[in-house]
Amino acid sequence: MDILTHKENGILTISFNRPEKKNAITAAMYQAMADALNDAESDIAVRTILITGKPEIFTAGNDLEDFMKNATSLASGTGVPPVYQFMHALNNSGKPVIAAVSGAAVGIGTTLLMHCDLIYLADNAKLSMPFTQLGLCPEFASSMIFQQIVGYQRAAEKLMFGEAFGAQEAYDMGFVNKVLPLEELLPYAQQQAAKLAALPAASIRITKRLMKGGQPQVIADKMIEENMHFATMLNAPEAKEAFKAFFQKRKPDFSRFN
């Protein structure tokens, strides 16, 4: 199973489990996570949610071969792609969501963290949002949420250049809650999840709802705006050059595009 789910003592753990492909996410994996989150919303036995990966890798982002197979439906807007279902389920979760991240978190691997309530990183974590490097734009409201968290200038640097940044820098800019040695990450995140699960469930849910206010709808609207641009740009020459270069294992040449 490329996505593992485990429920115990009020905690639903969702784990990326495709290490041979660096936990690159396929449509089927998005669907499995969306289903797990939607089921958790109505499951009174689930009081908190923990998302994690492997010690060496959180996720390399989208599986590009699988992604390109589904790009037509993404660009045409036909149906609701599993990635949309997952991100909307994450955005709308009324239960606290914790992320425990070690290794690389590329693209949506970093974007999804913005929709979590608590983020803990191992000291080997490396985050990146390389959308401009692929001829694309930010996704799933990251252009709005990230600058709200870290400020405009820091967000502009990370989103415009798309370069990776480490765990300490992520902490220093206020993006994550704590950085831990790798071997301490998962036990600490599980401990925090257990503490939340032991608190009154209604109190936690209402506290989250009050803090979020009307933000989930604002985020949903921004998702629509970003994803319209993202879908259009998938068919643009810049993205085609970026993906072609990726599969040919060369550096893309954007010099001929305005």
Task: Break the fold down into its secondary structure elements and pairings.
Elements: E1 3-8, E2 11-16, H1 27-41, E3 48-52, E4 57-59, H2 64-69, H3 71-76, H4 82-92, E5 97-101, E6 104-106, H5 108-111, E7 118-122, E8 126-128, H6 142-150, H7 152-161, E9 165-166, H8 167-172, E10 178-180, H9 182-198, H10 201-212, H11 215-234, H12 237-248
Parallel strand pairs: 2-3, 3-5, 4-6, 5-7, 6-8, 7-10
Antiparallel strand pairs: 1-2, 8-9
Helix pairs in contact: 1-4, 6-7, 6-11
List keywords for this structure.
single chain; 258 residues; 12 helices
Which band does the percent of strand residues land in? 15-25%
Q: Distance between the terminal alpha carbons, to the nearest Å?
A: 44 Å
How much is the average pLDDT? 94
| Share of helix, binned | 40-55%
In terms of per-residue confidence, which ranges show pLDDT below 50 for 5 or more consecutive residues?
Answer: none
Structural class: alpha/beta
Give the helix tally: 12
Radius of gyration: 18 Å
CATH topology of the domain at 3-181, what is it called?
Answer: 2-enoyl-CoA Hydratase, Chain A, domain 1
Molecular shape: globular
Sheet having the most strands: 6 strands, mixed
Strand order of the largest sheet: 1-2-3-5-7-10
The CATH architecture term of the domain at 3-181 is Alpha-Beta Complex
Query: Quick one: CATH class of the domain at 3-181?
Result: Alpha Beta
